[in-house]
Amino acid sequence: MKNRTFAALAFATAVAVIAASRLIPNDYFFSAAYTVLQFIILATAWNILGGYTGYVNFGSAAFFATGAYSSVFLYKALHAPLVVMIVTGTLAAGLLGLAVGYLTLRMRGVFFAIATLALAVVLYTFVVNWDYVGGARGAYIIQPRVIPFGLPRYIHLLYSAMVLMTALALVIARAIETSTIGRGLAAIRDDELAAECAGVPTLRLKLFSATVSGALMGMAGTTFPYYLAYIEPSAAFSLSYAVNSIAMPLIGGMMSWVGPVIGAVLLGSVQQIVQVTISSAWNLLIVGVLLVAFVTLAPNGIMGWVDAWRRKRR
Amino acid sequence: MNRLTTWFTTGLIVFSLALVAPALAQQPLKIGFGMSLTGPLAGNGKAALIAMQIWAEDLNAKGGLLGRKVELVYYDDQTNPSTVPSIYNKLLDVDKVDLLVSGYGTNVIAPAMPIVMQRNMAFMGLFGLNVNSKFDYDRYFQIMPAGPEPAIGWTQGFFDIAMGLSPKPQTIALVGADAEYPALALEGARAQVKRTGLKVVYDKTYPPNTVDFSPIVRAIAATNADLVFVASYPPDSAGMVRAANEVGLKARMFGGGLVGPQFAALKTQLGPLLNGIVNYETYVPDVAGKFPFLEQFLAKYQGRAIREGVDPLGFYLPPYAYAMMQVLEQAIKATGGLDQAKLADYMHTYEFDTFVGKVRFAKNGEWAQPRMLTVQYHSVIGNDLEQWMRPGHVTVLYPASYATGTVKAPYQDNKK
User: Fold this and answer.
1) Could you tell me the residue range of the domain that residue B55 belongs to?
2) Within an 8 Å CB–CB cutoff, is residue B364 touching chain A?
3) Whether residue B395 sits in one domain with residue B259
4) Model pLDDT for residues A245-275, shown as the tens digit of each residue
């Protein structure tokens, strides 16, 4: 399928999903779905740098928080509309991604991963000491009383925005995967030196990959302050974003855009269900057990397992 | 339809209603909340949950509320704000709870507020720090006794006592963690400094993951401040107190906003190192006479807390968690129903008689009058828990109506 056709289909599906969701009278669906969609974007974004390019990023929370805190800044400074917050947060996190891309000039493998972790710590410290956006005390972001498009509650708007952003993230991820850029990134992942020798513009591609990955992660965080109404650094920089954005593509499969979606839907839904059925204490255990199981039994994730099964059938 | 059929149908409907009505009456009255049962605040969350369960059992033993048994419907919020919106939406839309109360602490109360406000529900908060200052919701109430201006109410006792010293102190050092509560306490302390005219010789914060506090305390000691006000969470409270002892900090008063010494874990861990420190508490056995019904609650609580491995003293949060439910109970009984507007009106208008004393709410839903106890620890010997269950190791200094003695200064002369 051509990328344009896929894009049209993805956005049409998104609009249809939003319209169909209006028939659901239950707000629990919207808040649970918001969280799962947020993880789909994060996992998809992480996979562009981690899966396609082979650079493992442990600092997803930093990009997510950049998106969230740029929204807080715009709320405090201008009371900017949601769409402005989304665009600005995405650009800010993209710029941060570009900076991280330059790190790849000197660092690879575990060193790059540790550098991204350090980036999250540095940004956390910066936010904690930036009083304008709430600093250590956190900031209140009050949801507007007037909700556009005749939606009954603000969570419906946040959910709709999240559905559209998810569609955008998937379109971008698929477009990268199926283009020459995607093949270049795959070459970098397999052997960067060989790719460079073969004429692949590795630096440019890595910068592109890191920028897009960072921008999408930031985009996932832009609506988060409105979702919570109160944001403080430990919530925005939560380790769960870093852990889940790695675990989800690992479980779903890192070689294609579908893998992170499957991983995020599976893990995100399981976490939501476990939280209100068994006990939240089981959440992290489930993530851990699934990770160990997949790394051992299906190292290429669900998609890798499906591909292997298909090949066998042929 | 002929007459016989009409009578038969009517009879059938009446009969069905007669069968269904008692069943409806028997449906429990559901109270929903999220509570931190895992994560950093799990210790406090579990303790609060025990208190709320004791309340429900006590009430059900007396026949429940409005002729219905009370059922607590709760989920673990993992001390993670991002789980809160889902939990409260599920409580309302799937579990169909009749009433909502909050979990423990500001960061899980605030995310529930938009949902509560959209549904126009009365909402009791458990130890949130000035949450309503931004929401300005007229159906929000909060049970922590910090008063209508929590930052001020929290610090008032320390500063009033300090300014009562003779000669009057001139200088103060302010220190706290880069985190939500310490930031609020320091904000209050700075307002008090302005009011009292003290000179600030040190005003710094440290990252929440700090483990070595000696350099901080040495820097404070070098300023020779008359007063040292600390706003910290339990791990850093332990670090600050240990460092103050190691460095040999000299000050006329030390403490103020240490979170941790209210709980058995830190009381037993620090033991005699707490001697001389002036800090806040919400209840101590030395003022048991002022809380006539609390002993029986604590007896029930302490038995269960030991079994469940949570704070075995239960002085800080559990009595207030129980009182929060008592407020709700009394409002429901008085209004005779679950009309949220009537409940909120009643809670704004009347005083409540609870295990933690008389409670009246201010316009913003906080206590109308602050009642944080400012205390000084003394005569603590060894690290056993038993001594803390009896009076004799804590002097209540503030408020005056609860005072059991006066402050002993300087701090370094009272470390025994």
Assistant:
1) 27-145+294-359
2) no
3) yes
4) 999 999 998 888 999 999 999 988 888 888 7
